[in-house]
Automatic annotation (TrEMBL):
This is Glutamate dehydrogenase. It comes from Salegentibacter echinorum. It comes from the Bacteria. InterPro entries: Aminoacid_DH-like_N_sf, Glu/Leu/Phe/Val/Trp_DH, Glu/Leu/Phe/Val/Trp_DH_C, Glu/Leu/Phe/Val/Trp_DH_dimer, Glu/Leu/Phe/Val_DH_AS, Glu_DH, NAD(P)-bd_dom_sf, NAD_bind_Glu_DH. Residues 192-423 form the Glutamate/phenylalanine/leucine/valine/L-tryptophan dehydrogenase C-terminal domain.
Length: 426
């Protein structure tokens, strides 16, 4: 059989820059501000040694890219993945700046991580690696300066190790004032009730809003999800609870299909959050990963890595909605094809913003010495998500444009206003 020629994927950085430049032209962004936002403020790369369980020392590479802090401290996740590099971290940091601005939060954007396959290390090694990263980053992070959070392959435990290590570098009397150096911590140690589900809830909520604005309901809508980690699991759980049917799930190890619907809870029990996989689950058939995006369904949710929907597969998508749980899952070429085919993309900076909104609540809770209960958090989260969604929808209707363009216009204009009001560029 003849091999099909694969079209080269754009890098995540190419994609975010194309998105930014397009919006800058559309809104006639002040050229000085365009120069500032078109580059990342700081790119921190650290190499740090850690002793492994067998006594040998390995040297790891960590990144923290701080894109912009015009609206407030840098904010964004830490990713442990073999593919992370400074270019990806730059793109992901820029997306954080747009996301926090769109959500109306007093934050800028950052992202980072460690180039590592965490599956290859024991929990004790991961703890030492995380603590060493924290020391290596030193004052490049801080509760009023740059506040990391969970992302791919990091979780509440990772955040607890960072908080503990960072706080241990402070005088005893100041330690508790530094707890909000990270968000996404375990509830027992300064974490917010509901931060675990906040991103997935936001994905579900934005899909629900879009579907209902078309006078339809989620009942009996079918969906497929790529990635069954924090975001994929919680988004699927909320959607199924509201009557939608999960037809297919893909992770890095397997692609599963069940025409009668996959049980979210059974699949979750089968795959443990970090080292598990959906592979081997007996409630669905395994299928060819190449056929995943082309499945007949109403909604596609990429909730894994960036650059998954490209010119190589976008034309296969039959769903009418792509809800971007992941950051940067659709590259610029893939996006053009989806839009030409009349597919609505709920862009990452809107769709997955529930996570950073939850993080903001946790940060406030810590700063103010408060403890919020789950109902209170979910109520506040829903209210905020609705406001952000309606803002973007209003811009879509007003400008007769796609959702990403509308979201970018709002996000970048807000930052431009902040610079102009300060009078830095009269
Ligand atoms: N956590 C959060 O609060 C937020 C996360 N996001 C974004 O959501 C996405 C997912 O993050 P999160 O759920 O936290 O991460 P997790 O680490 O919890 O889960 C990642 C999931 O993606 C799967 N995956 C990894 N590589 C591939 C691949 N090549 N093909 C298919 N599946 C793959 C993993 O599978 P396996 O287990 O087999 O490796 C796993 O199921 C990321 O893009 C992240 O930036 C956005 C906003 C907030
Ligand atoms: O919760 C946060 O601060 C950021 C989460 C994140 O990394 C993201 O929204 O992509």
């Amino acid at each position: 059989m003849a091999e099909t020629t694969k079209i080269k994927k754009l890098s995540m950085y190419d994609t975010v820059m194309k998105q930014f430049n397009k919006t800058a032209d559309l809104i006639d962004l002040n050229p000085n501000i365009k120069k500032i936002l078109g580059i990342t403020n700081n790119e921190i790369i650290v190499h740090f040694p850690v002793k492994m369980d067998d006594g040998k020392v390995e040297v790891f590479t960590g990144y923290r890219v701080q894109h912009n802090n015009a609206l407030g401290p840098y904010k964004g996740g830490l990713r442990y993945h073999p593919t992370i590099d400074v270019e990806d971290a730059k793109a992901l940091a820029m997306w954080m700046t747009w996301k926090t601005s769109l959500a109306g939060l007093p934050y800028g954007g950052a992202k980072g991580g460690i180039k590592i396959d965490p599956r290859k290390y024991s929990d004790a090694e991961l703890e030492r690696i995380t603590r060493r990263l924290t020391y290596a980053l030193g004052e490049n992070i801080g509760p009023e300066h740059d506040i990391p959070a969970p992302d791919v392959n990091t979780n509440a435990q990772t955040m607890a190790w960072i908080a503990d290590t960072y706080m241990s570098t402070k005088a005893t009397s100041e330690r508790s004032q530094n707890q909000h150096v990270v968000t996404g911590k375990p509830v027992g140690t300064g974490g917010l009730e509901g931060r675990d589900r906040a991103t997935g809830f936001g994905v579900y909520f934005s899909i629900k809003q879009l579907v209902e604005s078309r006078d339809e309901s989620l009942k009996d809508k079918t969906f497929i999800v790529q990635g069954f980690g924090n975001v994929g699991y919680w988004a699927s759980k909320f959607l199924v609870e509201d009557g939608a049917k999960l037809l297919s799930v893909q992770d890095a190890h397997a692609t599963l299909f069940n025409k009668d619907g996959i049980s979210v809870e059974n699949l979750y029990k089968h795959s443990s959050p970090r080292k598990g996989s959906i592979k081997g689950f007996d409630g669905a058939e395994e299928m060819d990963p190449e056929d995943f995006f082309g499945l007949e369904c109403d909604i596609v949710i990429p909730a894994a890595l960036g650059n998954q929907i490209t010119a190589n597969n976008a034309f296969k998508i039959k769903a009418s909605i792509v809800a971007e749980g992941a950051n940067g899952p659709t590259d610029d070429d893939g996006e053009k094809i989806l839009l030409e085919n009349g597919i609505t993309i709920i862009p990452d900076i809107l769709c997955n913003s529930g996570g950073v909104i939850g993080s903001y609540f946790e940060w406030l809770q810590n700063r103010n010495g408060e403890l919020w209960d789950l109902d209170e958090v979910m109520e506040k989260l829903e209210k905020k998500l609705l406001k952000v969604f309606k803002n973007v929808q209003g811009e879509v209707d007003k400008s007769k444009t796609d959702w990403r363009t509308a979201a970018y216009k709002i996000a970048i204009s807000r930052i431009e206003t902040a610079y102009i009001q300060r009078g830095i560029f009269p």
